[in-house]
């Protein structure tokens, strides 16, 4: 095990065991170096790694503190590694996404307010009206994010946002079949929004799962080179 790994796992254990709690300042460098058996260089690199993961927060002139350790923040850091997945890896993630999108859609149908429904249909209308693929992708993301937010679990909101961010790196709407694919996506959105408006959790879950499955089929059909662009959520 390298010195950096030793420092990283040592600090992680202090936090996981509860010795260092959320919001607490980590001990001085000299004390940590002595306890963990590493020099300052590896220790500082380990702290930088934990900061990138959202586990600690360096504060200028004050020291380094354990973050609030909110699940949604920690989950959000998955984007650092999920962005590295090739398309074949992303397709494996879609099985998880289908389950989670169906779950949050069902929750949203049970909890949606009239304002929620208005927001969803407004986003659909904006998606249908724009000719800009980038704008359509952003509206698509906001549509699904609103459903997840209404579901009431911030951790799921964060996790699904990470999944969607990776899938948006692929573009199909600019392909020859793009207009037809986009119309199908818009239709799926309306079916899903209507199920939520009807407060029908079962129908909402089925619509969400079918929509994600359709996107997965498009990804399988239109393999690279289509990377580094956008795809509907």
Automatic annotation (TrEMBL):
Pfam families: FCD, GntR. SUPFAM superfamilies: GntR ligand-binding domain-like, Winged helix' DNA-binding domain. InterPro entries: GntR_C, TF_FadR/GntR_C, Tscrpt_reg_HTH_GntR, WH-like_DNA-bd_sf, WH_DNA-bd_sf. Keywords: DNA-binding, Transcription, Transcription regulation. Coiled coil: none annotated. Residues 1-69 form the HTH gntR-type domain. CDD domains: WHTH_GntR. This is FadR family transcriptional regulator. It comes from Streptomyces coffeae. The lineage of its organism: Bacteria, Bacillati, Actinomycetota, Actinomycetes, Kitasatosporales.
């Amino acid at each position: 095990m390298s010195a950096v790994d030793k420092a990283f796992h040592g600090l992680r254990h202090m936090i996981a065991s509860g010795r260092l709690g959320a919001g607490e300042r980590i001990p001085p460098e000299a004390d940590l170096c002595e306890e963990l058996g590493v020099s300052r260089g590896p220790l500082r690199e380990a702290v930088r790694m934990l900061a990138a993961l959202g586990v600690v927060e360096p504060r200028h002139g004050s020291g380094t503190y354990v973050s609030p350790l909110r699940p949604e923040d920690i989950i959000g850091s998955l984007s650092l590694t999920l962005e590295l997945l090739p398309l074949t890896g992303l397709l494996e993630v879609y099985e998880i996404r289908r389950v989670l999108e169906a779950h949050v859609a069902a929750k949203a149908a049970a909890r949606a307010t009239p304002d929620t429904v208005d927001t969803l249909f407004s986003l659909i209308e904006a998606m249908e009206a724009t000719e800009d693929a980038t704008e359509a992708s952003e509206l698509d993301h906001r549509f699904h994010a609103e459903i997840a937010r209404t579901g009431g679990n911030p951790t799921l909101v964060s996790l699904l946002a990470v999944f969607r961010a990776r899938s948006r790196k692929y573009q199909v709407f600019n392909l020859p079949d793009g207009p037809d694919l986009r119309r199908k996506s818009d239709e799926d959105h309306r079916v899903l929004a209507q199920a939520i408006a009807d407060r029908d959790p079962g129908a909402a879950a089925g619509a969400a799962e079918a929509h994600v499955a359709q996107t997965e089929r498009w990804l399988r059909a239109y393999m690279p080179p289509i990377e580094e662009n956008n795809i509907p959520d």
